[in-house]
Amino acid sequence: MRGTSERLEAWLHAKDPTPDIDRLEERMDPELAEKLNELDRCVECGCCVAACGTARMRADFVGAIGLNKIARFRTDPRDARTDDDYYELVGDDNGVFGCMSLLACHDVCPKDLPLQTQIAFLRRKLVGKGWD
Hints:
By secondary structure, the protein is mainly α. It has 8 helices and no strands.
């Protein structure tokens, strides 16, 4: 899991590299904060990766856990990365376009995370980036 997090740079890339200490958190709509909290509930158990047909065929596939992390940061307005940056990370067959949508990840997640919804979200956001 650590390797996946490092590969995907699964941390907040702050817009301001030197934030004001007195104002560390930006105000956020409660609905958006709840959505981010929902995506952060992953316990990194690996059930989604173990059940994934694509991960069995492709060792470099990031799996639902990696794509969920990317979707979480793509949703967060505090993250400075652009869709082009996310495309570079997961815009190929080892990322979001490699998923065969078998839904096994979604079925076995012990936290009932919306994994397939997040993969579809990323596909919609990144599909046009490969043509730019």
